[in-house]
Structure formats: structure tokens, C-alpha cells
Fold:
Amino acid sequence: MTKTIKILGVGSSLREGSSSTAMLKIALDFVKKHGAETRLLDLKQTNLPLYDPNENQSGLELRKVEEDVKWADAFILATPDYHGSMSGTMKNFLDYFWSEFAGKTFGYICASHEKGLTVMDQMRTAVRQCYGWSLPYGISVNGQDDLENGKIMNQVLKPRLEMLTRDLVVYGNLIRQQFVTDIDSDLSDTFAAHYRK
Ligand SMILES: Cc1cc2nc3c(=O)[nH]c(=O)nc-3n(C[C@H](O)[C@H](O)[C@H](O)COP(=O)(O)O)c2cc1C
Structure:
């Protein structure tokens, strides 16, 4: 039986009128059409301190971010292309988590004047280190050419986003459910066994 998948969108641009966050909001609307529950974590609106492993970091905003991450079955990460890399804001968000990403699927959006492929690969690398799964393709958006007033003007981009959001709901659900099933089992020959409490 298919469960309702919970998808957290993470926006990481601090720019007013951000293209990556605009595209993320459209993507969250699309996944809803496939029956997903959604939440938006816009890091521009969130005071997430620089991750410091020496400190026992706390605070209401961090607690809320942790709650959102644990709630999610799958993620859409959206970032600007900064020097071929993800934003520092996104990297800082990722640094806070590890086991919370295991067995969850990630889709990627990058606002770039190029294609943002290295940017998405870097996010994939960080997610893979945490035993998260990634969709093998992502969405690259060029704000000037592709968006107007928060709507997609590029008719090639729209079906691509429809494909990504559909795939995230379907594959994200399959992977999450199998991971949870494996944790609940007594199988030892699965990576999920490492996350059994
Ligand atoms: C510090 C900095 C570095 C950037 N580096 C690149 C880059 O390497 N390649 C690129 O295509 N765009 C680069 N850009 C442009 C941004 O990726 C582009 O403006 C993007 O649309 C910003 O995303 P946002 O609208 O979500 O903030 C850079 C912008 C800044 C501020």
C-alpha cells in the first residue's frame, strides 16, 4: 500500500526574489498534485547558526529545523550556483544532519547561468555520505530566461520539473518504505540494519 509521502523543500538563497526558491515553491506545488504532503524550510527566513560541533547547539529555530528534517520522507534541495558550488547556507544546513538523511530520497534544483551540474553533484556527494539516495538528474533554472513573477516561462523546463516531482514522489516512497521495512525486520544484510535502535 502506498503511504502519503512527506516532502521537505529546503531553499538556501538569501537573495530577495531568489530564482531557486521560486522554483522550489513551484516544485512543492507539483508534488502536492501527486498526493505528497509538503513543508517549506526557507533558510532565508530561518536563523540557523553556523554549525559548531564543540557546542551543544539548541534554540527554538534549530529545534524546528530538526523536527522538519525528521518529519520528511524525501527532500528537494534548492540552491544558487556560487562558484560552481552550493550556497554556504545549504552546506551549513546539511552539516547539522547525518543519520536523519539515511534511506530518504533527494531531488535537486540549482539556479545558475550555466547548468549547475557541479553544484548538484556536490549536494549528491554530501547526501551520499549520509546514506541518502539521489535522483540521477536535477533541475537547472536560469532566473532571467526561465521565470517571470514566480511562474515558469520556459516550456521545456515545465515537463522536466513535472518529471522530477513525479519521480521523487514515486521513487522516494518506494525507498523510504523499504528502508522502514528493513529497519523493522531482523535482517542483517541490509544497510538499514545500521540504523536500527
Ligand atoms: C558569489 C556568487 C558566485 C556565483 N557564481 C556563479 C557561478 O559560478 N556560475 C553561475 O552560473 N552563476 C554564478 N552566480 C550567479 C548565481 O548563481 C545566479 O545569480 C543565481 O540565479 C542566484 O540564485 P538565486 O536567484 O536563487 O539567489 C554567482 C553569484 C554569486 C553571488
Q: What stands out?
A: The longest strand covers residues 74-80. Helices lie at 19-33, 60-71, 88-95, 117-129, 143-146, 157-184. DSSP finds six helices and eight strands in the chain.
